[in-house]
Design brief:
Layout (H helix, E strand, L loop, with lengths): L7 E8 L3 H14 L6 E8 L3 H10 L5 E7 H4 L23 H4 L6 E5 L3 E3 L3 H5 L8 E10 L20 E11 H6 L2 H11 L7 H9 L5 E2 L6 E2 L9 E3 L14 H11 L12 H26 L1
Parallel strand pairs: 1-2, 1-4, 2-3, 6-8, 9-10
Antiparallel strand pairs: 4-7, 5-10, 6-7
Helix pairs in contact: 1-2, 1-9, 7-8
Length: about 300
């Protein structure tokens, strides 16, 4: 079934640290959009400052976007049951698992995008893909299969998965929200991560790939080109790993230039890359938050 909603529905989540990346993503979507319908954009606010929100709003064309701001605590109303994995990813990575539950029930299809992306093609092309009755559509991760020694599912054998089962990246997900709710995907994925937390290096991605193994639609890889890719005509560039906002970025220089092309069209036009120390401090902060929550949850249960 192809996307037939009156508007294109997109969800992303952002904290104050990556606000400028969100601005570049939105500007890239806007510049390349050729559709006539407005884009229904839901931004999940993970501690964005009021001034930052105003800068983002000034950076985009209000004739293209209808923006709804939603606090993280309203998107995930009970965070006490979230898996406290050992990764350095922030807890907001779990937002994508709750999208079909906090969007209006009339929203039959939604596109989730990680904030560290830019679009180089008209997003309506992706929106109108026939999902072939699948719950989600995505792009194969650079690890390729569940048996990959990098980023795959290290306990795939115990889970009964064929080693050649393809493994998708959760940074871009086209979701059939009705099928998602019908199949209780949120609860099943969270349960899977909790039961296999020692193996879930990329927690939400791990759980989604276990629960939806062999049951998702594979999209053209151009819709999620990773920063180390050599693709000359990407549809969406995904800056996994070190972001172009850091001086330590070492992947495609062309992709980096495309990022700054869009950033220069926003309220962050004068930004220059900063030290990698900011990146390391953010990762440390994410781990500290999770450890603190483990202590709090332990006290509440005792």
């Amino acid at each position: 079934m192809e996307g037939t909603n009156e508007t294109i529905s997109i969800v992303t989540v952002c904290d104050n640290h990556y606000a400028l990346m969100l601005a570049a993503l939105l500007k890239s979507l806007e510049v390349n959009y050729k559709g006539k319908k407005r884009i229904d954009l839901h931004i999940i606010d993970d501690g964005l400052k009021e001034g930052t929100i105003e800068k983002i709003a000034r950076s985009v064309d209000k004739q293209v976007f209808d923006i709804t701001w939603l606090k993280l605590e309203d998107a995930i109303r009970d965070r006490s049951e979230l898996p406290l994995d050992n990764s350095t990813f922030p807890l907001n990575v779990y937002v994508r698992l709750f999208i079909p539950h906090f969007l209006p029930s009339s929203t039959g299809r939604v596109l989730y995008l990680d904030v560290d992306m830019i679009a180089e093609a008209d997003i309506s092309m992706l929106w109108n893909v026939d999902m072939e009755d699948k719950v989600v559509a995505g792009v194969v991760d650079r690890s390729g299969t569940v048996s990959s020694t990098w980023g795959g599912i290290t306990n795939y054998q115990e889970l009964g998965l064929d080693p050649d089962t393809k493994y998708f990246n959760s940074g871009l997900l086209l979701i059939d929200t009705r099928k998602w709710r019908e199949q209780d995907i949120t609860r099943r994925v969270l349960k899977c991560i909790q039961e296999n937390s020692r193996y879930a290096g990329f927690p939400d991605q791990y759980g989604l790939n276990v629960v939806l193994a062999g049951q998702w639609l594979e999209l053209d890889s151009k819709w999620n080109c990773y920063a180390m890719s050599t693709e000359e005509s990407p549809y969406i560039i995904h800056f996994i790993g070190i972001k172009p906002i850091y001086t330590s970025y070492e992947y495609s220089s062309n992709y980096k230039e495309r990022f700054f092309h869009y950033l220069r069209l926003t309220e962050w036009s004068n930004f220059r890359p900063v030290s990698n120390n900011f990146r390391l401090l953010k990762k440390l902060y994410n781990k500290v938050v999770k450890r603190w929550r483990r202590i709090v949850n332990g006290r509440q249960k005792s």
